[in-house]
Amino acid sequence: MKHVIALDVGGTGMKAALVGADGTLLYEARRATGRERGTGAVVAGILDFAAELRDHGHHRYGRPAVAAGVAVPGIVDSERGVAKYSANLGWRDLPLRALLSERLAGVPVALGHDVRTGGLAEGRVGAGRGTDRFLFVALGTGIAGAIGIDGATEAGAHGYAGEIGHIVVRPGGPACGCGNRGCLEALASAGAVGRAWAAASGVPGADAADCARAVAAGDPGAVRVWREAVAALADGLVTAVTLLDPRTLIIGGGLAEAGETLFTPLRAAMAERVTFQRLPAIVPAALGDTAGCLGAGLLAWDLLTGSAGPGSYAGAAGHGAGSGPAGSGPDGGPAGPGASAGSGTAGPGSYTVSESAESHKSDESAESHKSDETNETESTPDREVSA
Questions:
Q1: Cα–Cα dist 161/154, whole Å
Q2: For 290-313, what is each residue's pLDDT tens digit?
Q3: 3-117+289-384 is classed in which CATH architecture?
């Protein structure tokens, strides 16, 4: 059976799958990222995991994977296949596409930004299926988005498109990890809501889920915290709607797990703020934590088909319930989206690792949106999903 390898790399865990041409998840596995062992170990773990998946596919389906896709956090140069910077994982100018292609016997490899990759899956085969224009927003530890146009996501001229978490909605407000004050991320992310509720309730370690439960129970302090966060979120999202005019607004991440406790007041708050604008359909994400793997699989299949449109994964429904570079990179011309890794990109020996804390604040913030950092890597067994 023809299939591709899909990898979704997070701060503490990696999710992976073998994905069929119709989007079927044939096999799923999870591993710890192992960042406590250093950046070199993280990179080795990614390569080993990919090789393990290739071997499994060859044994189980009689042939190795025909391509691979990988989604990573931080600053990503998808065209050149370089993971430019990750504060959490410690790399800088990592030629991950070339390294993976070499390890996988030369198959073509696609590299993507984690939120844009998850947004790609939601837009094509998830909550935005059939929509020509969508905006996917992940409300996790931070906030980031993916701008979807005709079945593809827009990276922008420098790779920062979709960083909606850094729209300033309360000038002079709380400090943000990017170095500014009053950013949407500092007021309306799951992390921000958790911090505000912990302070208001006097319960150290209280999080956004605790706040949502208290709101549902009618706690006035929780209602106040929640209302302020929803107001900030509505201000930021209306700005995005005004600029982008999406047909569908897809909300995912940890905060979206509150369901209608979030969506009912958010829809009302946005309706109060628009004048001439047309509000999009505001819907929860549908793919859960499979979005990253499905999106990485889409990137891989796009390499083979030469398309980046809604036709990929035809019939692939029901997979789940429910971001330029920081510094100058290696020289070399860009490789086209369908090229094999290594053409015109940095060589495998030319990257650096960053174990120290001398990180760019804006780059740290750009990868703080992940809502599933626990990933349950130790407790979730590998499993065959479909024959």
A1: 7
A2: 999 999 999 999 999 876 544 455
A3: 2-Layer Sandwich (3.30)
